[in-house]
Design brief:
Helices cover 41% and strands 18% of the residues. It contains 15 helices and 16 strands. The N and C termini lie far apart (78 Å).
Length: 432
């Protein structure tokens, strides 16, 4: 029996799941699907590769017969296309009209106001609304996919306009591998329910991913160390991440000259080129992909066994997104970062915060092995002090909540729960 049957969803959806070999819901799907079906707002934060797309797509398709439109907002065209293709597959025979895809330079053929399943990027959605093709007033359910990336890319104002236009929205669903403070403020703006369901609220990585690093004594040796790493691994598919477009072009040229079988993905490519690159990499026509962080957000590519960070991610969230391209759906994966002394300090902090082990490695012949004798660079962050600071921050937060509760009850004339009368007040009363 298909494990999704307990949600009482359409038999056709169960058949489609079985065709894909999906018979048991992941934890995020197990928690999110019934809540969405019951009309709850959901904040779904879950590790990368845990099936967040189906966690909202299946219940939205089940609810598609109800009045109102479902709108899925994605940060990039590539992710929007990926969601659209899933909606086409699972929605066939369920949706009355084909879903609509709204991305730059493209609108789905046969665009119809009868379509009640819309997927797109913020700018294109607003453009369709301004032209009268899309009635945002008909939207009842809104999904923000990869919500953190939407904020990082500067879509805050577009989202505000979207929420203002979708004034009759009933449900807001927010999904992301990470949730920043800025994203939480968007949830407060969009959600009309006092208490949205929170799922797995901690930034984390699957336990199946090994986090490793190679110490770099001199930055001039970075290319050499990269080549040493690649000589030791033979991934089914591997992604080499860089911070900038210039770095990605440099690495691509370096490896191309060395005869590597690879592609490049960065912001310098046209939309059609990016789509072709992702398609060819998914089909394993090339073993390696050199990419900027553009590729780390939400693009689901099966078979990526290794991630190599040529340069370390700018922040902890980007590290999580990069690492999450491997180890998907319970598979094992390896993340190898090339680190100078400064990088090492930041990487140790990232791994401390997401509670994953980090291993120093070295090259021996054609093998990467653990460097058990490595003492580590001088710590940039005192982890014991960091834990102490975290406890202090939590205490301050709890004290602030208690103070706010006290002040609120003071205004209404009620005594805070558990409060005691001041002994000085008692003395004054006795004197009288």
């Amino acid at each position: 029996m298909n494990g999704f049957a307990k949600f009482h969803i359409n038999e056709k959806l169960l058949e489609k799941l079985s065709l894909r070999g999906i018979t048991s819901p992941t934890p995020i799907q197990d928690e999110a699907i019934p809540r969405i079906l019951n009309g709850k707002d959901v904040i779904g934060q879950s590790k990368t590769g845990t099936g967040k797309t189906l966690a909202y797509l299946l219940p939205l398709l089940q609810l598609s017969e109800k009045k109102g439109t479902s709108l899925i907002v994605a940060p990039t065209k590539e992710l929007a296309v990926q969601i659209y293709e899933e909606a086409l597959f699972y929605g066939d025979g369920i949706l009355a009209e084909k879903p609509v895809l709204l991305t730059p330079r493209r609108e789905s053929p046969n665009f119809s106001n009868k379509s009640n399943f819309i997927i797109g990027v913020p700018g294109s959605i607003l453009k369709a609304s301004d032209s009268g093709k899309l009635k945002l007033s008909a939207v009842r359910r809104i999904v923000l996919d990869e919500a953190d990336f939407l904020i990082d890319l500067g879509f805050m104002n577009d989202l505000r306009k979207l929420f203002d236009a979708a004034s009759k929205r009933e449900n807001v669903l927010v999904f992301s591998a990470t949730l920043s403070a800025k994203t939480r403020s968007v949830i407060d703006l969009a959600s009309r329910q006092k208490d949205a369901s929170r799922i797995d609220p901690k930034n984390s990585l699957p336990e199946t991913i090994a986090n490793q690093f190679l110490p770099l004594s001199n930055d001039s040796l970075r290319d050499e160390v990269l080549l040493q790493i690649l000589s030791c691994i033979n991934p089914y598919l591997g992604i080499i991440f860089t911070r900038t477009r210039e770095e990605s072009n440099h690495v691509y040229k370096l490896l191309k000259e060395k005869g590597f079988d690879l592609l490049i993905l960065n912001g310098g490519l046209q939309a059609g080129q990016r789509k072709k690159t992702i398609t060819e990499f998914k089909k394993a026509k090339f073993q390696y992909l050199v990419a900027t962080d553009l590729a780390s957000r939400g693009i689901d590519i099966e078979g990526v066994t290794h991630i190599v960070n040529y340069t370390l991610a700018h922040n902890e969230l980007d590290y999580i997104h990069r690492a999450g391209r491997t180890g998907r759906m319970g598979e094992s994966g390896t993340v190898i970062s090339i680190c100078n002394e400064l990088d090492e300090g930041y990487l140790k902090k990232y791994c401390h915060n997401i509670d994953v082990p980090l291993t120093a490695m070295k090259v021996e012949g054609n093998l990467l092995v653990e460097d058990k004798k490595y003492k580590g660079a001088k710590p940039r962050f005192n982890l014991k002090e960091l834990k102490s600071m975290e406890k202090i921050a939590q205490s301050k937060k709890a004290a602030k909540v208690r103070t706010e509760e006290y002040n609120k009850k003071k205004v209404t004339g009620k005594k805070p729960s558990g409060s005691k009368a001041s002994p000085f007040t008692a003395k004054k009363k006795n004197k009288k």
